[in-house]
From TrEMBL:
Pfam families hit by this protein: SUEL_Lectin
Gene3D superfamilies linked to this entry: 2.60.120.740
Domain SUEL-type lectin: 122-207
Highest taxon of source: Eukaryota
Record protein name field: SUEL-type lectin domain-containing protein
A molecular-function term among this protein's GO annotations: carbohydrate binding
Swiss-Prot/TrEMBL keywords: Signal
Keyword Secreted on entry: no
Record organism: Pocillopora damicornis (Cauliflower coral)
Signal peptide segment: 1-23
Length: 207
């Protein structure tokens, strides 16, 4: 009896290897493989039909299990692809939402804090007009007529020249207005450093 089982198993392994490629390609190949195994086993042990049926039943069970496993793997793969696609769409929507929120935040900050401070430089003897948008008025933060660096409006070694009347005059002229004209001149601010090329710098904010 043991010898019979050994022959059955050996025959099964041999024919599985021989016809394995055909079995994987189509159902027809699988049926052909099982038929060949059955015929071969009958020639080896024709009186063991009961055991042959058991072996074939095991083969069929294994085949069904493999098919089921393959189908589940396919379903998982499909679900994974769908999940990735959904995640991509969600990420794109979140990115757009983040951009909108960033824009809204900037607008809110601008509305709360007003415009950023602006600066203007007017070289000596020159004139200019500074303005704010309609509905906003100027607040003068800083003003100086003189020279604080070497390269603005020409070159000079003097870097600490200040007219004490600078801030007061500009505030009086421009504060609370939508626009105002400024003239960088010794006749307006006095001459804080004779013989030096000067300029007027004004820093203001529209509120």
């Amino acid at each position: 009896m043991k010898f019979t089982y050994v022959l059955v198993v050996l025959a099964l392994v041999a024919f599985l290897a021989l016809f394995g490629s055909e079995a994987k390609r189509a159902k027809k190949g699988e049926a052909f493989m099982i038929k060949q195994i059955s015929n071969k086993l009958k020639t080896v042990c024709p009186n063991q039909k009961k055991h042959l049926k058991q072996v074939l039943s095991i083969v069929s069970s294994v085949d069904l299990t493999l098919r089921f496993t393959h189908s589940r793997i396919g379903a998982i793969d499909l679900a994974t692809k769908q999940l990735r696609k959904a995640n991509t769409k969600i990420f794109q929507r979140l990115t757009k939402l983040d951009r909108k929120l960033t824009t809204i935040t900037k607008m809110m900050r601008k509305a709360i804090n007003g415009d950023k401070p602006k600066s203007v430089t007017i070289c000596e003897t020159k004139k200019t007009t500074i303005t704010c948008k309609k509905g906003k008025k100027m607040n003068i933060l800083h003003a100086n007529y003189g020279r604080l660096n070497k390269n603005t409006c020409g070159k000079s070694t003097v870097t600490n020249c200040r007219a004490s009347t600078s801030l007061g005059f500009v505030q009086k002229t421009c504060k609370g207005k939508v626009s105002c004209a400024l003239h960088a001149s010794n006749s307006v601010f006095g001459d804080p450093c004779r013989g030096v090329r000067k300029y007027l710098t004004v820093k203001y904010k529209c509120e």
